[in-house]
Amino acid sequence: MSYIKSAALEETGFVILDRYDQAQDPKEWLDLEYVDWKSSGDTQFAPLASANGEIEVNGFWNHQPPRTDKDGVWIESQVAKAPRLTARAQEPGANVGRCRVIELKPNSYEETLYNLHQDDNNRLNPDGSGWIVRGFFNLSDDADSCLVLREERFDPDTEIRIPLPAGAQVIVDTQRFWHAVWHPGPENRYCLITSWESGPELDAFIAKHHGTTEHTSPPLDPAVIAHAQADVQRRFAERAAALAERGSADEGPEMSDV
Length: 258
Fold this sequence. Notes:
By secondary structure, the chain is an alpha+beta fold. It contains six helices and eleven strands. Strands 1, 2, 3, 4, 5, 6, 9 and 11 form an eight-stranded antiparallel β-sheet that branches. This is Aspartyl/asparaginy/proline hydroxylase domain-containing protein.
């Protein structure tokens, strides 16, 4: 199928924008209503836009009628509590699907690799329309945390690690990358995640904020990576064995968003 895609993301699959001055904004995410939804670890989500304007975060294709991750309905009660976050999600002028704040409790590198997943943003997306990507705006100051991206799930040579201090802004083709966040903590991490439709509006937004693909991953001891890889393989083997006993196929962790 042929989709409209952003040239800025075509080669690398991600783009890093200018860092936002997060200190200028109130901590609106602390006032929002959250729902329990597990993705990439011990998480809950506060939706700003959902399929029908309700406080839930399920994929739009699981509603009636089913549709792709576009045309999200803003939730009045949540928007009233977080007008600045809403404005930031709307700034590109691109079509918005799901928009929500994620709360992630501290985790380990091993847990991060185990929770790597690809999103399914473009399910039911019509041919010839804009490819859906995700914006990640880090709200809390998590300078020791990283967004972990891999082209190949079990190949550490494809790993990219993007630091997540307050104000970090990244746009990722999360259907291309296996991804999760490594968050050592000690406090919970908060991030605004928005589904945007690719097109001229998003391209202009990326250009305005000097989007770049230039990046150097923070160093990580190869021994740490090797240990984590082995731990993940062990956990998947144990999971597969347990599922085999029940006669189920092992498809790995059921994740939908970072």
